[in-house]
Amino acid sequence: MGHDASYEPQRVADGWELTTGVKRWTPVLLTGAFAVVWTIVTLVLVAIGLRQGGFVLLAFAAAFAVADILVWVAFVKAYRVGKEWGDAVLVLSKWPVRLGETTHGWFHRTALGDNSMADHVTARLILRESATYRVGTDTKTATEDVATVPLEVIPQEREGRPGVAFEFTIPGEGPPTIELQWNLVEWLMIFNLSEAGAPDVVSTLPVRVAPEVAR
Amino acid sequence: MIEIDLDDATVALGETVGGRVVWDPSEKAPDGVKVELAFATEGRGSVDRAVVAGAEREFHGDPTMVPPWFEFELAVPDDAPVSYDGNLIRVVWRVEARLDVAWARDPKTHVEVRVLPKGA
Predict the structure, then answer these.
(1) pTM of this structure
(2) Between B71 and which of B11, B20, B53, B102 could a Cys-Cys bridge form, CB atoms 3.0 to 4.6 Å apart?
(3) Tell me, what's the ipTM?
């Protein structure tokens, strides 16, 4: 549902670790496959238009070609993100997090070939609603961020790896994570990273919040 | 006429919703009564709905001996969604009651319940 990792983190010595892992390449493969298919369709349209000399068909082909360029630009950006940025790793002191409880966290994602954190990192915690519904045979999802909490990050190494540390508290009045077939209410950690010479990247990782108030 | 009287309209996950269904004894006696605790979503998304607990009773014999009430205790599961009132999504909990009346329209009613996280 729109985040980098599943809801099943790995237990580590001092908390719980979520990682994007091999999923870093998934958008690259999907975008590349889509770009290839789109190019084939565009070339077929151009070939038919040239053979028949139809202006309307060539106009369609031109519109497809413009969209094709945009798809390839998206592919190149996804490829550069995959090639130049490493996996995102989020470590939280608690999992699931309880309402009203302060949780400590650490985040790591470095540009490859430069084992330091990005030049600039911002972090925020958001509460997002995702409502999925059917329109005819299509399935659509409406999303809205209903709360945003900016987080202060502090550079901190962990097991020799550079990263940033932070802490947050889910409000005591909630809500907790609500995950149903069509409706989802979830807390997400969003990290924006920028590094000279690499495309900006956003890491989105879920925080499962239990329906329990900490005492 | 049928009514639901709840002991408490606000409960936490893992607790029980207790109360009684009361109906007018001057009207035709029912053959049975059924109570359900359910949640449903409202808003932009398709509806998620589930009945999480229920209780029912059938009445046999002399209808004049049937008491015009039915007491119930319905457990709210630990892993159920809590009540929520957001921008795109609402999660609403209800206790719904229905009388089974032979050869007549079955009277029914419902009341809303607020379900909170544990420890709230």
Answers:
(1) 0.82
(2) B20
(3) 0.91
